[in-house]
Amino acid sequence: AQKVTQAQTEISVVEKEDVTLDCVYETRDTTYYLFWYKQPPSGELVFLIRRNSFDEQNEISGRYSWNFQKSTSSFNFTITASQVVDSAVYFCALRINAGNNRKLIWGLGTSLAVNP
Amino acid sequence: DARVTQTPRHKVTEMGQEVTMRCQPILGHNTVFWYRQTMMQGLELLAYFRNRAPLDDSGMPKDRFSAEMPDATLATLKIQPSEPRDSAVYFCASAPIRTGEETDTQYFGPGTRLTVL
């Protein structure tokens, strides 16, 4: 069975702090894809990143970085020097490579509050 | 900047009424997903379509929910009759999935917030 766990339900930080959002996944498949989405207060889900299981390189995009570790089945997301605009719910999701199956398995999300 | 659009953005209705939500996927995207989001259940996949054909609607209550794609630019989700427990935000997402490619990132619309009284 596939599963995504985001153990942190809510995180509160002060602006300019670094913050890491954890994502742990479960799958028996060797080929799979991991995603992060952001849901700001406006409600729309915004795609942040997609990573396939064969690419374990960490990725950096501005203040955002992602640490993919197959050994621990984790795909953690770090925001450096957080800003108030980063306040949102962040979702991690998993998709296995199974023919036409394009379902995403979603975590329950981590609500991040960045306070001024 | 291509986006998924959804109408209406907000809907308040009374129990027993029919509700229709509409989605316009990004032009060229051939796969459309319908999700429901509630505080208790999080994001739930209701159904999804590829090239207008339903691929999976196992997440959808069959007795009252129906999803269709009359054409490539319109997907609809209907609830008849609606019940208070249907109150949620309903999201549509589209993706450009092609055989042999795995670039299937889903792009979401702004959602329809449904309240059934």
Give a structural overview.
- The complex is a heterodimer of chains A (116) and B (117).
- Chain A is mainly beta and 116 residues long.
- Chain A contains no helices and twelve strands.
- Chain A has strands at 3-5, 10-14, 19-21, 24-26, 32-39, 46-52, 59-61, 64-69, 74-79, 88-96, 105-106, 110-115.
- In chain A, strand 5 (32-39) and strand 6 (46-52) form a beta hairpin.
- Chain A is globular.
- With 117 residues, chain B is mostly beta strands.
- In chain B, 0% of the residues lie in helices and 53% in strands.
- In chain B, strands 2, 4, 5, 6, 9, 10 and 11 form a seven-stranded mixed beta sheet that branches. Chain B has a four-stranded antiparallel beta sheet with strand order 1-3-8-7, with no helix packed on it.
- The chains are: A mainly beta (116), B mainly beta (117).
- Chains A and B meet through strand 5 and strand 6 of A and strand 5, strand 9 and strand 10 of B.
Task: Summarize it.
The complex is a heterodimer of chains A (116) and B (117). By secondary structure, chain A is mainly β.
Number of strands of chain A: 12
Sheet with the most strands, sense and barrel status of chain A: 6 strands, mixed
- State the helix count of chain B: 0
Give the termini separation of chain B. 36 Å
**Major interchain interface with per-chain residue totals:** A-B, 22 and 24 residues
**Rg value of chain A:** 14 Å
Task: Specify the biggest β-sheet of chain B.
Answer: 7 strands, mixed
Which radius of gyration of chain B do the C-alpha atoms yield? 14 Å
Note the total helix count of chain A: 0
Q: Helix proportion of residues of chain B, in percent?
A: under 10%
Oligomer designation: heterodimer
> What overall geometry of chain A do the principal axes of the alpha carbons give?
globular
H/E element sequence of chain B? EEEEEEEEEEE
- Look at the structure and give the mean pLDDT of chain A: 92
Strand content of chain B: over 45%
